[in-house]
Amino acid sequence: MSGIPADVDANAAPPMTIPLRHFVVALAFLVAGVAVGVVGGRAGHLAQVHLLLAGWVCLTIMGALTQFVPVWCGVELHSRRLAAAQLALAAVGFAGLAACFLTASRTLLPVAGSFALVGVWILCYNIGRTLLAAESDVTAIHFGWALVFFALVTAAGVGLALDHAVGILPLLGVGRQGLLLAHGTLAVFGAVLTTVAGALAQLAPMFTQADTGKVDVAAQRAETALYPIGVLALAGGRLIGSTLLAQLGAVLVAVGIGVVAALLARQLVSARVEWSPMLTRYSIAAVSLVLWAGLTVAAWWQDPLSYSGLLGHPSTVLLVGGVGFVVLGTLYHVVPFIVWVHRYSDRLGFEDVPIVDDLYDHRIAALDGVALTLAYGLLVSEQWLEMPDTVALIAGALALLGTLLFASNLVTVLVEHSPQSLPTLLIGREQTAAEES
User: Fold this and answer.
1) What is the pLDDT of residues 167-216, one digit of tens each?
2) Which residues form a coiled coil (predicted)?
3) What is the spatial distance between Cα 303 and Cα 244, in angstroms, rounded to a whole number?
4) Which of 9, 202, 214, 250 is at 20 to 30 A from 223, Cα to Cα?
5) Using one digit for the tens of pLDDT, what is the confidence trace for 294-308?
6) Is residue 430 within 8 Å of residue 86, measured between CB atoms?
7) 78 neighbors 130 (Cβ within 8 angstroms)
8) CA distance to 198, 284, 358, 414, per residue, from 271 (Å)
9) Of 109, 123, 90, nearest to 47 (Cα)?
10) What pTM did the predictor assign?
């Protein structure tokens, strides 16, 4: 993990300000989301969900897609200007949604939702046009489906926002409960986990250097074909209240996630590189997703339409252990990687330069890993068992400490190693029209 993999084209990447700006803003959403959870408790649940899933996870995904689709596929990004515009619109929309939920300002929800929709749809158009110029592979197929789910989930979100404000759903003949379940399904299992599966198909073999056998390839191809169908069936069944359709989708989704997790676990066990914060967090995610898939498939078969079972059982294992630790681990490589390419790659062979993993502080990475893992364990224990209220407070404090350490470690990479200052990364001018792709 000390350099740039040979099978990616770093020259195809957009200017570093575009993805890094997404990641820095996403880190702010992460800290805000954990803080809201600690201070607001259950009263701030909807705000926290949108701060973490939409603000942190989705903005991170938007930045990662913008950076690595051109790099992995070896094609130019369709438009750098659109990539720069999507962040501002989506971030305002996600922050506005959280603020509306915190203040109970229902009438402003459609406004915030519209900003989010436009920002996300710009991403879908820009990355979609970029993917059209690339060769189709497992990762590209996953990303293409993820764009479809991003478009659908934001449309469903605006529908829910309009219903909150003016009660529009009865006029459309759509049930609120069904649309809410479909919205959550498309968000987590569609937009987020489809992207995660596609990214892991590249990242896990790349950074473990593990061999990929014929069984792995066959399992991955089956998951690629069937998982998106499962998401659509589960979301559609929940939308129209069809138990049979939802059951079919539930099995495909749970099995698909289980396959992704099992392949990741096998590659981690067979890793031929030094262990790193990225792989450590991936190992937690792999175990969590295998556990979640095994427990959820039976529960969903019994009742795939209940709100309490929206994200499976237990949901904390999926969201924190699965999604959360995958994103944490990925950022521990992606941010230093982008900075290294722009700051040190041209100097390689002419002078001593640090490796990618030298750019962040490993002691802080170890501390944030311990804090977040302990918080995760306490949250799962609280969800499974009857625990005193102090356990939730301790878990929240550990989660906040861990996220602050994590965010500070990555921001320090930017401050100490980036060729541009942090203010320039956040508000600096993008490329000129002549440089626009």
Assistant:
1) 888 877 789 999 999 999 999 999 999 999 999 999 999 999 998 889 99
2) none
3) 10
4) 9
5) 999 999 999 999 999
6) no
7) yes
8) 19, 15, 20, 29
9) 109
10) 0.93
DSSP state of 13: P
Looking at residue 11, its pLDDT comes to 56
Question: What are the tokens at 321?
Answer: 């252990």
- What does the pLDDT average to over 221-234? 98
Token pair of 327, please? 């994103």
Alpha helix segments (H runs only) across 190-242: 193-208, 214-240
Coil, helix or strand for 427?
A: helix
Q: What is the torsion angle, in degrees rounded to the nearest 10, for the CA atoms of residue 108, residue 110, residue 111 and residue 117? A: 150
The residues, ordered by sequence, that sit 6+ positions from 268 with a Cβ below 8 Å of its Cβ are: 204, 208, 210, 279, 282, 283, 286
Provide the token pair at 43. Answer: 């009263």
For residue 275, give the nearest of 198, 332, 211 by alpha carbon.
332
Max Cα–Cα distance, the chain, nearest Å: 68
Higher pLDDT, 437 or 50: 50
Q: Rounded distance, CA 64 to CA 208, Å?
A: 20
What is the chain's Cα-based Rg? 21
Q: How far is residue 142 CA from its own chain's centroid?
A: 13
Contact at 8 Å (CB) between 343 and 255? no
Helix (H, G, I), strand (E, B) or coil at 351: strand
Q: 348 has which bridge partners? A: 351
What secondary structure letter does DSSP report for 11? G
Q: Would the CA dihedral through 90, 424, 356, 363 be positive or negative?
A: negative
Name the percent of the chain in helix, strand, coil, to the closest 5.
Answer: 80, 0, 20
Residues in the chain, overall count: 437
Is residue 237 within 8 Å of residue 247, measured between CB atoms?
yes
pLDDT on residue 435: 41
Q: Which of 258, 327, 263, 241 is nearest to 296 (CA)?
A: 258
